[in-house]
């Protein structure tokens, strides 16, 4: 047993590196998805620090492409120093992902309060005649989530826009998608979405944060498995050279 390392062990570690790269790519994808989705709902959630977990996992995912290459080279060349360094880096990244999970849960818990604080102001500033970004965001959310108003369509009666238009109608984005002749009139409530948007926006944002949490947990599990295999392979190497 003079040679350090076993061919099958090296093959397994190289294969794990490929999984490692794929997982890093998924991590970056999840982070990017959070950014894109947040852009659609940012008017309802003003705390930009919510994006910190997404920023971290994108940075970690990008860094791990490079780290995975180092680990793959160290595995093939059977470099004890390289593998030991690789394991240490994995542990540091693992700690970072634990931080991401903790931050994810913290900001997930804050979503409901943040949306409740800002959604009334957003609806009061709605302008259906010359829509600004916030007004377009309301129409987008109502169409995408199939909702109307904050708690239900009657909330529109308290908005400045409703009082100014004086036509007893809500925005057309409140109309059910299957109806082509809907005018948004409150005299035909059966044509409108009955569910309010606040609860659905909160649910959507919490789901997005859970994607970050689950992605970080899954990747942390992969890292643990790989660190254990590398560490055990390193021990075998030490014994085989004795």
Automatic annotation (TrEMBL):
GO cellular component, one term: plasma membrane
Residue ranges of the TM segments: 12-36, 48-71, 83-107, 211-239
CDD domains, alphabetized: TM4SF8_like_LEL
Record's bilayer topology term: Multi-pass membrane protein
UniProt key word Membrane: yes
Keyword Transmembrane helix recorded: yes
Top-level taxonomic group: Eukaryota
Record function comment: Regulates the proliferation and migration of oligodendrocytes, a process essential for normal myelination and repair.
Assembly mode: Interacts with claudin-11/CLDN11 and integrins.
Protein name: Tetraspanin
Organism encoding this protein: Anser cygnoides
Lineage of source species: Eukaryota, Metazoa, Chordata, Craniata, Vertebrata
């Amino acid at each position: 047993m003079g040679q350090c390392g076993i061919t099958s062990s090296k093959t397994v570690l190289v294969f794990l590196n490929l999984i490692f790269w794929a997982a890093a790519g998924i991590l970056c994808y999840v982070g990017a998805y959070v950014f894109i989705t947040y852009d659609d709902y940012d008017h309802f959630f003003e705390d930009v620090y919510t994006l910190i977990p997404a920023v971290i996992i994108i940075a970690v995912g990008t860094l791990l492409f490079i780290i995975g290459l180092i680990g793959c080279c160290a595995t093939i060349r059977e470099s004890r120093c390289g593998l030991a360094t690789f394991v240490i880096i994995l542990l540091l990244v693992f700690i970072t992902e634990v931080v991401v999970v903790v931050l994810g849960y913290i900001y997930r818990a804050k979503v409901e309060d943040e949306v409740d604080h800002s959604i009334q102001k957003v609806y009061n500033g709605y302008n259906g005649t010359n829509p600004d970004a916030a007004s377009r965001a309301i129409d987008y959310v109502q169409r995408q989530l199939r909702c109307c108003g904050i708690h239900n369509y009657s909330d529109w009666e308290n908005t400045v826009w409703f009082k100014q238009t004086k036509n007893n109608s809500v925005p057309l984005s409140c109309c059910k998608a299957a109806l082509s002749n809907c005018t948004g009139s409150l005299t035909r409530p059966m044509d409108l979405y009955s569910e309010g948007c606040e609860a659905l926006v909160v649910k959507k944002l919490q789901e997005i944060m859970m994607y970050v949490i689950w992605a970080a947990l899954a990747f942390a599990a992969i890292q643990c498995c790989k660190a254990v295999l590398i560490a055990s392979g390193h021990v075998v190497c030490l014994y085989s050279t004795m």
